[in-house]
Amino acid sequence: MNILFVCMGNICRSPLLEGWARQVLAGAGHPATSGLDSAGTGDWHAGQPPDARAIAAAARHGIDLSEQRARGVVAEDFQRFDLILCADRENLSWLQARGGPAAQERVALALDWCGVIPGGEMPDPYYGTAADFDHACRLARDAAHGLLRRLSRQA
Q1: pLDDT in tens, 37-59
Q2: Are 32 and 25 in contact (CB under 8 A)?
Q3: Which of 1, 19, 78, 127 is the most buried (most CB within 10 A)?
């Protein structure tokens, strides 16, 4: 299964979601690990690594985000990915508006789809403190474990 994680700039929340998903799925030997990616609804950070605070928060938990590079969502993503999980409703609305009718059932809130928080949104830590990045990191961890549980049930 190909899964895309999306937030606004692809430097904080979506890299954390992708990094944790890679770690958890690989640890369980799940084949979806090779089909994971992240992107932003905005492309102003394209080519840049994740925010240094996201890298540091992930590193405190043994997750390496340093090789990831930001990119924007492109039209082909709606065909390439079986599932597009986003951080919040603003990004969900953006994706739904651009994905067309065929993509609607493949686009969802990450925390909701992964069973972490029904209807939940992942707060953007960008203007926050290290504690906000740690909180986002914990939510990404919980989402990754929920993703594994849900994918394992579907197999």
Answers
A1: 999 999 999 999 999 999 999 99
A2: yes
A3: 19
